[in-house]
Design brief:
Blueprint: E1 7-9, E2 17-19, H1 34-54, H2 59-69, H3 79-84, E3 86-90, E4 95-96, H4 99-116, H5 122-144, H6 151-156, E5 158-162, H7 189-204
Antiparallel strand pairs: 1-2, 3-4, 3-5
Helix pairs in contact: 1-2, 2-4, 4-5
């Protein structure tokens, strides 16, 4: 198992936990068929190209947005993944990937499109170079990694699995995050406001008589 990403195993309670070095390695889901993933990717690229052609001047931006968000459109499935029966799962919550997860896992591939959008002839050269380097690294990881993780899957903590394996977990809800500060991370501005409002409301309440 590659040491470049955390590994998950199925715990006794619902959800997943990070497996530390020396513990049992594994995943709740088997690796999906590479041929099914390849077919799904070809369909998605074809759809993105069609959007690029149809949308005229804005076609590049529309195609880029589609590639970024595709895996969160149909409960963890893009158009191609729906056709070929594979699905993107968010491992820590065992739920279908959402738009944020899709954006993170597809960011390396979207970078290839961004390079190709540079003014010609630089765009053509940069796009081809990005396709060879980034696409080659991602393809190599998919083939060699035991879970089929690309670099984007490492960032998003996702895994592409056979849709039949997770047929009963397609609408699994994610556990809400408590409004508490996590060491080493920052709360979002909205969460900070909600937390402060909650504290003020608690201060204003009279204490119960003893």
């Amino acid at each position: 198992m590659s040491a470049s990403h955390p590994v998950y195993s199925a715990p006794r309670r619902p959800g997943l936990r990070v497996v530390h070095e020396g513990e049992e390695l594994g995943s709740p889901y088997p690796k999906a068929s590479l041929w099914m993933r390849l077919g799904a990717r070809i369909v998605d690229v074809a759809v993105a190209w069609g959007l690029h052609v149809v949308c005229g001047a804005a076609g590049g931006v529309v195609a880029l947005l589609f590639l970024l968000l595709a895996d969160g459109m149909l409960q963890g499935q893009s158009v191609g993944k729906r056709i070929f029966g594979v699905k993107v799962m968010h491992l820590p919550t065992q739920s279908a990937a959402r738009h944020r997860d899709s954006t993170l896992r597809n960011a390396p591939l979207a970078l290839i499109v961004l390079l190709g959008m540079m003014p010609p002839p630089l765009g053509l050269v940069a796009g081809l170079a990005g396709l060879v380097v980034i696409g080659g690294v991602e393809a190599l990881r998919v083939v060699r990694d035991p879970l089929g993780w690309r670099l984007g899957d490492t960032w998003a903590q996702t895994q592409v699995v056979d849709g039949k394996v997770v047929a009963g977990a397609t609408v699994a809800a994610r556990t809400p995050v408590a409004p508490a500060r996590v060491p080493g991370r920052f709360l979002s501005a909205a969460r900070v406001r909600r937390f402060r409002t909650f504290k003020k409301s608690r201060r204003g309440k009279p204490c119960a008589s003893r």
